[in-house]
UniProtKB/TrEMBL annotation:
UniProt cross-references to InterPro entries, sorted A to Z: AMP-binding_CS (IPR020845), AMP-dep_synth/lig_dom (IPR000873), ANL_N_sf (IPR042099), ATP-dep_AMP-bd_enzyme (IPR050237)
Highest taxon in the source lineage: Bacteria
AMP-dependent synthetase/ligase domain residues: 14-356
Record-given protein name: Acyl-coenzyme A synthetase/AMP-(Fatty) acid ligase
Species: Kitasatospora paracochleata
GO molecular function: ligase activity
Pfam family, one: AMP-binding
Keywords tagged on the record: Ligase
PANTHER family (alphabetical): LONG-CHAIN-FATTY-ACID--COA LIGASE, NONRIBOSOMAL PEPTIDE SYNTHASE PES1 (EUROFUNG)-RELATED
Amino acid sequence: MILDHDLDIAPGLGRRATVAEIADLIDDFASRLWAARVRPGQRVVVYKSDAFDITLLACAAARIGAVPVLLSPKLDGATVAELVRRTDEPFLVTDQTKLEHELPAEVFDLADKVLLTKGSWPGAVELAGLAGAKRVAPVTMPPEHPTLITHTSGTTGTPKLAVHTGRTLQARYRPQAAVVRPLLPGRETIAMHVSFVHSRLITALAISLFRGFPILVLADSDPAHVGDLFAQLKPGILEAHPNSFMEWEELARDPRRPLANVKLFSSTFDAIHPRTVQTMLNASERTAPVFGQLYGQSEIGPAVVRSFSRRRGLDADGRCVGMPFPGFTDIRVVSRDGNPPSATNPGFIEVKSDGRIVTYLGEQERYDRQVNDGWWRMGDVGYRTKWGCVHLLDREVDVIEGFGSTLAAEDTLFARLEELAEVVIIPGPDGRAVPVVCTKDDVPLDLDAWKAAAATLPPMAAPVQWKLGELPQTATTKIKRIELAGLLAAGGTR
């Protein structure tokens, strides 16, 4: 395993370690948690500065039968305090930086005990001070018992806490492993830039570890930094968020050819723009590279899958997110108004899968409202073609009536304007569609080129230009559209 950063819990480990050394580190910290009085079934909230040790601490908690609750370092302190309250006096693993700059003092009243991975704080226990704790035997919990709690993206408000079990995580692992096996018959180095608090990282690591793949774990997605690493290590698999791939488009022009050895590009979390897909595939020098797209959700896991090859041009329909995993998942589209779902009248997308979470912690009624006879409502609208392919058109809450698919319009603009780094179409205060655009290197938008690119799209207000880093984002780098719309309505400009 290769890291692009040092671990707060083990700064002396360095950035290259064997799997056995990482496993020993997990065993070590499981024993330290036990020495801090963490016991099977108890919840351990991990909210610390961004690093891969977030995931390793989750493994350590699970090793002694505790239930890790992973909260993104990007969450603000008030939101974290509310989520800690919902977990009912958990142990809180954090660090001095978060206590100084993010967390309110009330977390000490909300948590059973506060444990620190780095630094010191009055009333908190330093995990470094528990070094040398007696090693304890692992605790195996029943497969139906909660084994991991993650949070939803929070694009529509305070994140919900999604409860996973051993059984539901295993159900997510199986179809992904089955899809990857024929694509990658040999050993490949995999590079991952995935949120350390997301359940996707658990299955991605499992697939890689069971196959014996060398693993590069990235905390920093900056293209210059990533280009240096990829040029040296030549990964054969890339796993990242859609927005990370967009950010890495410039690597396709890097003379060191950092993407030349990539056989499989893999993206979950959200639909990805066709321009980005083709840019990645064209940068690979492998015989038949594949871009695999998994459409799913924190609550349900991967629901449908689609692959892209170089044979598909920029006009390939990026709104087609794929087909269900045969024997693992099923999908249907339910009418919103009694008329058959179609491209012009999208319906509610619903999924059935054994990988579905078992509840929202503390919000059972909210969870029950999304389940109908085993079908989980995704919160997206779309339709299915006669061949069964699922087309994702919009989030339910983002629909602009009379406009059509905002996601499809964004795809079109990306394909026609090379200088775009991001474009998000949201409803303005008067209900009219407003495009918020970000350009590469923040150059001023060419308004004449914009008008030409948008000429065939439904009418929109004049574009509003922001810097990419100033857009509100989730832990998986999705844009918080509702929050952005609120900022614009309040007169926010950049």
